[in-house]
Amino acid sequence: MRSGDGTRIRGDRAHAITWLAIIYTLAILFPVLWMATLMIKPEAIMFTRPTVWLFEPTSDHFAFLVNEGFLWHLFSSFIVASASTVLVVIIGTPAAYAFARFPIWRSDDLFIFILATRMAPPVCLMIPFYLIYAKVGLIDTYIGLVLAYLTFNLSFYVWVMRSFCRDLPVELEEAALTAGYPRWQILLRIVFPLIRPGMVAAAVLCFIFAWNEFLYAFMLGGDKVKTLPVSIPELITTQGVRWGEMSVVGIVGLLPVLVTVFFLQKHIVRGLTMGAVKG
Amino acid sequence: MNGAKATAHLELVDVNPERKFWYPYALIAPTMATLVIVSLIPFLYTVYLSLHEAKYGQVKEFIGVDNFVTVLTDLRFWNAMGVAVVFVLIAVPIEFMLGLSGALILNAGVRYRGLLVPLMFIPTMMAPIVVGLLWKIMFAGSWGLLSYNVFERFGILSGTSIFGSPNLALYGIILVDIWQWTPFMMLAFFAGLQSLPTNPYRAAAIDGANPAQIFFRITLPMLSPLLVVIVLLRLIDAFKIFDSIFILTGGGPGDATEAPSILAYKMVFDYWEIGEASALAVLVWLLFFAFCNVFYQLAKKKLHAF
User: Fold this and answer.
1) Alpha carbon distance B103, A215 (integer Å)
2) Is A45 among the domain residues?
């Protein structure tokens, strides 16, 4: 077995490191695991002193959420995050490729412009968004929120993909050009398969950003468009904080992301590193 | 291998005689148009608002830089800046060092990557607002899980609530941020380390270099483009922090954790000082932009790989 720098490592070193990693992971995840137990813990014994570790599980929290229309939140989140990601990929990929490959007038300035849009604190853009949306009636609409998410996701996606495209060897495309293939075919048949890992990595990250986003969803959403993060403050009621329900939202919100990353991790790693480290 | 770098970002030599000049512009047009609509126009509107007297949602008269003066002479603004600077200057370096060390350790030979890596990444994958919640459960007053089991049992910090104490609240927020973002750094750097070429290392082994030399003269320089990108990304995002502070302390106690984003939020939704909030936003953005430029230029000079 070889380590990252090519040297051979003895089994016991790998053994020790792996154990270290396991212990670290468990320690780091302890709060999350605790939160998971709160999903099924009866309210009364949640925060007693001394802490109650073993108990009879309850499904009250789940029932409460389903009654309050929690499944709708899940659905909203999914729509907004997916639509936003798909849009970003369709709009941003050609641009990233173009920035990487073609001489564009003032391309550096344009690129800095793209980065700069991501630099604004969200509140900065939120004020005009809220005011403009209120006037044109885009508050509490899916289109409104998806458009708002384009601000940070599109710039992020183009940023990452441009690096990625830059590091693709240009010879293949040049060869195809010399052979007389039309540009669109080159894009489709040569470039696209090569940049797929990068697209997957960047798209997954965009999805995660949109899925977890709170401020815009809070400000620009309403009764119809309610994403998962927005439901958290809603669970701070006048009768107290509904910790169990919040825990459910938190964990359920985590699961799709976890599963996606788990299954796509090879692509993500390839996608992220090919664009960043030159070798 | 440097030859590959030289050709990799050269533009394509177009052997097709009917060179279509507009081609690249057609490709970037949708992106630029979208960003103009969803970013530039709102930003310009913010600038417009910052130059007018705008309270309670009604825009009144043009008052030039008055809003800016008001904001710059407001102690609360400077407090917010201080909060952000302290936060960023403590959290990000710690995340960086922990992340890099962790990545180096993992790179030295961890197994079961497929399972451990996604699990380690969980804090980063969680919504920041949920993370805030989670730590509230851990540290809240006297009933937080860790507050009770760890603090009281060992007699440290007894009687104080981390997020309720003006001195400790910011450190609590920093801790939460470190918990959430160290995995991000660790895994980004780990992925970077994994993709480094092995030849330099073999050469170094032959030449008898010691681990410190290997790290500082081979690993670090090769990894630095990635390091810069990730750190810059993290710096920008850390400065913009909102969600966790919102749910944990709301900016308090007092204004101990009132980061610029929180202050702007309050100015808009509690005081309805739209003009001044816009001025704040423009100022923060200018600061960012200047800082990122400086950072980027520095990085470009020092690291030739850019």
Assistant:
1) 32
2) no
The yes/no answer to whether this complex scores an ipTM above 0.90 is no
By Cβ distance, the residue of A9, A22, A276 closest to B192 is A276
Average pLDDT per consecutive 10 residues, chain B (306 residues; last block may be shorter): 42 50 80 87 87 76 82 89 91 94 86 86 90 84 70 64 80 92 89 82 85 84 81 86 86 84 86 85 84 77 59
Q: Do A9 and B46 touch (CB under 8 A)?
A: no
- Look at residue A2 and give its three-state secondary structure: strand
Domain CATH code at residue A240:
1.10.3720.10
Can you give B79-145 as a three-state secondary structure string?
A: HHHHHHHHHHHHHHHHHHHHHHHHHHHHHCCCCCHHHHHHHHCHHHHCCHHHHHHHHHHHHCCCCCH
Range B45-48 contact pairs with CB under 8 angstroms and sequence separation of 24 or more: B45/A128, B45/A131, B45/A132, B46/A124, B46/A125, B46/A127, B46/A128, B46/B278, B46/B281, B46/B282, B47/B278, B47/B282
User: What single letter denotes the amino acid at residue A126?
Assistant: M
Q: Give residue-wise pLDDT tens across range A225-244.
A: 888 888 888 888 877 788 88
Residue A19 lies in a domain: no
Tokens at residue B58, please? 């009604």
Q: Give the C-alpha separation, A133 to A95, whole Å.
A: 27
Q: How far apart are CA A257 and CA B226, in angstroms?
A: 24
Distance from CA of residue B208 to its chain's centroid?
Answer: 39
- The Cα of B126 is separated from the nearest Cα of chain A by a number of Å equal to 6
A146 neighbourhood in chain B, CB within 8 Å: none
SS3 for A239-273 is: CEECHHHHHHHHHHHHHHHHHHHHHHHHHHHHHHH
Q: Average pLDDT, whole number, for chain A?
A: 82
**Chain A to chain B Cβ contacts (< 8 Å):** 324
Residue A270: domain span: 61-274
Of B111, B188, B288, which has the smallest distance from its Cβ to A18's Cβ? B111
DSSP tag of B273: B
Contacts of B271 in chain A (CB under 8 A): none
Angstroms from B122 CA to nearest CA on chain A = 7
Chain B partners of A116 at a C-beta cutoff of 8 Å?
Answer: 289, 292
Q: Assign A8 to helix, strand or coil.
A: strand
Q: What is the total count of domains within chain A?
A: 1
Distance of CA B155 to the CA centre of its chain: 35
**Domain boundaries along the sequence of chain B:** 67-302
Taking CA–CA distances from B250, the nearest residue in chain A reads A233
Among B70, B79, B73, smallest CA distance to B254 is for B79
Note whether A178 contacts B23, CB cutoff 8 Å: no
User: Cα(A87)–Cα(A203) distance, rounded to whole angstroms?
Assistant: 10
Q: Is residue A26 part of a domain?
A: no
CATH-assigned architecture of domain B67-302: Orthogonal Bundle (1.10)
Is residue A25 in some structural domain? no
Q: Integer distance in angstroms from the first to the last C-alpha of chain B?
A: 15
